[in-house]
Design a protein that fits this description.
- The strands form twelve sheets. A four-stranded antiparallel β-sheet has the order 1-2-3-4, with no helix packed on it.
- The longest helix is centred in the middle third of the chain and has 5 residues, at 313-317.
- The model is unreliable at 456-541 and 548-554 (pLDDT under 50).
- A hairpin with a 4-residue loop joins strand 6 (97-100) and strand 7 (105-108).
- It is built from one helix and 45 strands.
- By secondary structure, the chain is mainly beta.
Length: 562
């Protein structure tokens, strides 16, 4: 339109015939009006990507795609489908153009001749490194128990398997043998480089479901698998039992299936259905190779003989309750056989649950609204009382109910949020590394994040409000740890900003602070805080020591992007 929208002229003449008009998502033009750029996000054919006109729409060129030869970016660290969702021309240099896909941001500086990945970099060995925004919808984080330097992330769309062999710095996200686009859900490891993955994200997926690698994920081959009769999406779980060398369990279409020749020729693998209630969802391995749990529409079931038979946890515990149903994600306590945690966002049974084989199921509520949207739970590998929970609601609402990551230091009785530096509060999974020194989360649209747990030990550091001191109340305040006998660290802070007289952290069995009214000119109240690794005691004006029971939580972790 050249008249303020009174009349319109169709300017698609000259657009290559492979484009999809209904999938044009965004358009931008240069300040002089000569250059017009548009992006097409279609999921089919070769018409997706970016189209450019340098003559106000008289003629067009297709300048970016992942399915048309010659249009692939030259420095793409993260291999994803180039379906454009947004496009922007630099107002100062029209030859610089940015386009955003669902996962990455691409940049051209020569009018679309060459493209670069703006927020990711290529590392030596063709590995990728996320330096900024990466819009993955994460589904899984796992570590190889046979090679603890090998970490795996999985997610929707083209993140079938992302493998790091250096602690999460460089990532191999494009291994030969895997399909280009089907979503990754679960992974199972075996000795000598043996690895299996379960794929599929769309209802009715009948192919490209189970893959095998014999070289630690460098290459893959598809295993034969009967088409699922259910419309449930893909393979949600895989489980391999090393002590039974050829046995793999896979959940596909809501059915648990077993193969006893999974190490044979890939195109001759056969499967048998396991008789369980419908809608089997997830599998949780235990420290005993032949014992694992599965979720079904009738609650959680357990096998103790490598899958030869299953029984409801209601029968095992003798309590009559079988726990939450199919949507629950479960994790077994690796240091306590017979202890299982479940996280569920099911309408009828949402929240966190703990199962003990000798006492049955018990609910451990999270604060509202986290209780309603509990997605996953993780147990610290060496301290069973340390539990992490991930919350998130699928993004089809105006106000999302996700409240991020929660931590309990007392076995689920009390909880505190741990969201410092996280750009999103919607998560699908949380996972401790094998040594318990770090925790990882898979977000619902911003990739994966890590927090180091250097302060995590048997006596978690506490930092909470000790007392509030009113202006005009002078006196000598002392705090000590373990009856002033241990070498704790103490810190005093005040109001919304630290006052000038704030004392630095000090190593001393007792820290003494003296206050005068002149120090309370800016804030009516000041808060004395203490951090220590043992019992905390306090006294005023040399009165007897009184033990103080803190109500706070561990210091917030600082999350960093993988």
């Amino acid at each position: 339109s050249d008249d303020g929208g009174l009349s319109w002229l169709l300017i698609e003449d000259g657009v290559p015939g492979n484009y999809h008009p209904s999938e044009m998502m965004h358009i931008d033009r240069s300040p002089d009006g000569m250059s017009i750029w548009a992006c097409d996000r279609t999921y089919t054919g070769s018409g997706k990507g970016v189209f450019r006109s340098l003559d106000r729409g008289l003629t067009w060129e297709h300048v970016l795609s992942d399915s048309a030869p010659g249009f692939v970016p030259t420095d793409l660290a993260t291999p994803v489908r180039i379906g454009g969702w947004w496009i922007d021309i630099s107002p100062s240099q029209p030859s610089i153009v940015y386009t955003a896909t669902s996962a990455i941001l691409l940049r051209t500086e020569d009018n679309g001749v060459t493209w670069y990945d703006s927020l990711n970099s290529v590392q030596p060995g063709a590995l990728s490194r996320a330096n900024g925004y990466t819009g993955w919808v994460g589904r899984n984080v796992a570590f190889n128990p046979y090679d603890q330097d090998m970490m795996v992330v999985q997610g929707l769309d083209s993140l079938l398997v992302g493998i790091s062999r250096d602690g999460g710095f460089g990532w191999d996200v494009d291994q030969p043998g895997l399909p280009p686009y089907n979503g990754g859900n679960d992974i199972a490891f075996g000795p000598n480089g043996l690895t299996f993955v379960g794929l599929g994200q769309f209802s009715g997926t009948t192919d490209q479901l189970i893959y095998r690698s014999t070289d630690n994920g460098y290459t893959w081959e598809q295993l034969s698998f009967p088409a699922p009769s259910s419309a449930a999406p893909g393979s949600t779980a895989v489980h391999y039992i090393p002590s039974v060398a050829s046995t793999l369990f896979a959940v596909v279409g809501g059915v648990l299936r077993r193969s006893d020749n999974v190490l044979g020729p890939a195109n001759r693998v056969t499967w048998t259905d396991i008789a369980l209630p419908s809608n089997v969802g997830y599998i949780a391995a235990t420290s005993i190779a032949t014992q694992f749990y599965v979720t079904t529409s009738a609650g959680v079931f357990v096998t103790r003989n490598g899958g030869s038979s299953f029984e409801s946890t209601a029968i095992e515990s003798g309590t009559g309750s079988s726990g939450p149903a199919s949507r629950a994600r479960i994790e077994a306590d690796q240091s306590n056989v017979g202890i299982l945690w479940a996280a569920s966002d099911d309408n009828n049974a949402h929240g966190l649950y703990r199962y003990a084989s000798n006492s049955g199921w018990q609910s451990f509520p999270l604060p509202d609204p986290a209780e309603r949207w509990c997605k996953d739970v993780a147990i610290h590998p060496t301290m069973s009382n340390v539990i992490a929970a991930a919350t998130g609601q699928d993004p089809y609402v105006d106000e999302n109910g996700g409240t991020g990551i929660w931590l309990s230091q007392d076995g689920g009785n009390t909880w505190a949020q741990q969201n410092h530096n996280l750009p999103i509060l919607r998560f699908n999974q949380v996972h401790f590394n094998p040594t318990g020194t770090a925790i990882f989360v898979a977000s619902g649209g911003r990739g994966f994040f890590r927090a180091d747990l250097n302060t995590l030990d048997d006596k978690l550091f506490l930092e909470a409000e000790l007392m509030t001191i009113s202006a005009g109340l002078d006196g000598v305040y002392e705090v000590g740890v373990d009856g002033a006998a241990s070498n704790g660290k103490y810190l005093m802070a005040g109001g919304t900003s630290p006052p000038d007289f704030m004392q630095p952290s000090m190593d001393a069995p007792t820290a003494t602070y003296t206050f005068t009214t002149s120090q309370f000119t800016d804030e009516p109240l000041y808060t004395l805080r203490v951090r220590g690794s043992g019992s905390i005691f306090v006294r005023l004006d040399h009165s007897p020591w009184v033990e103080w029971s803190p109500t706070g939580s561990a210091p917030e972790w600082t999350w960093g992007k993988l």
